[in-house]
Predict the structure.
Amino acid sequence: MDLIIRNANLPDGRTNIDIAIESGRIVAIDHKLPARAVQEIDAAGNLVSPPFVDAHFHMDATLSYGLPRVNQSGTLLEGIALWGELKPLLTQDALVQRAMQYCDWAVGRGLLAIRSHVDICDDRLLAVEALLEVKKRVAAYIDLQLVAFPQDGILRSATALTNLKRAMAMGVDVVGGIPHFERTMADGAESVKILCEYAADNGYRVDMHCDESDDPLSRHIETLAYHSHRLGMQGRVTGSHLTSMHSMDNYYVSKLLPLIREAGVAAIANPLINITLQGRHDTYPKRRGMTRVPEMLASGIDVAFGQDCAMDPWYSLGSGDMLEVAHMGLHVAQMTGQEAMRACYRAVTETPATILGLEGYGIQVGCHADLVILDAANTIEAIRLRAARLTVIRRGKVISQMPAAKASLQLDGRPSQINFRLS
Ligand SMILES: [Zn+2]
């Protein structure tokens, strides 16, 4: 045996579990395994989780905050315009360097699988080349899945559809789209049809930015579900953002949710970004803008939380911390019940792993030995504390360590060391 992790608490609530690892895979999970291993790690009643998965990110834009200037209005549209100003200034070296820095942060946070959109509207496809290079460089420790994202719209931009197909031929994994940004509702619907048919014909997954708007009449998710169902793409199609659903008429939503479920379309909310960008045209009351997460979960739809942005034209903060994402999602969706909080943890682990189609993900015999030991007893405490990732393991090898968060108090008669955990 290469490694045994002892005394682990698992996300499903089991406690005092030992996990045995050999040749990069989990080979046994049980109470008090009698086996011995070359290396043993005592998890000491801490949560041992499969790694965090970010199903929605933009690695081509990350860490470019302030280049060439800061987003003054804070809106999505100014962010897109700003990105348009930045694009001609990008160099491959700078793109790779920023993405690699972000990937280092991700590893430190136990984030070992990322689906990143990459803008294909620059005819040079510089960002595509850069992120394919990054994908290769980080492959040993991060599963990086790329989505060909036509930021300027495949019908609105003259070369976007050609570029998207070029990007797929170069090795990009997933077909993207942005129907709400096309010139008209009809063009948006047409773009969904074109992209879904192209993906179905070529066996690709689909993940579109869909209805990232406060317009209650932006209903491209209906079209996405329709084509997903028609083309037999159940389980391979995702609608990202879906913020217009926040503002939709309740009666219409009551018809829409079963259609999404029937079509096997998954949803990705991006709580940090949605709460920041949406509702910007409102005075008061001001809409939150995040999609209807608890309602979709209750309808049997897979919902993940994505990070979307970290220090880029759209968002000035972020550090690759999926617990911060889950924490914000929990608050914005008011998912404060015990089971709802646990669902928020699944939305940054198991559910996005399913959306990405990751092989061997999870804590079961036969799965990859990709694990994170957190400074928390369970998933709810992990979210509450945005708990330190004490040890990050990939394929059975420790790849990152972080000290527990502790404070040394100088108060008479009080314990000197506290760790913010209820014990
Ligand atoms: Zn996005």
Q: What stands out?
A: The mean pLDDT is 96. The longest strand covers residues 111-119. The CA atoms of residues 55 and 115 lie 5 Å apart.
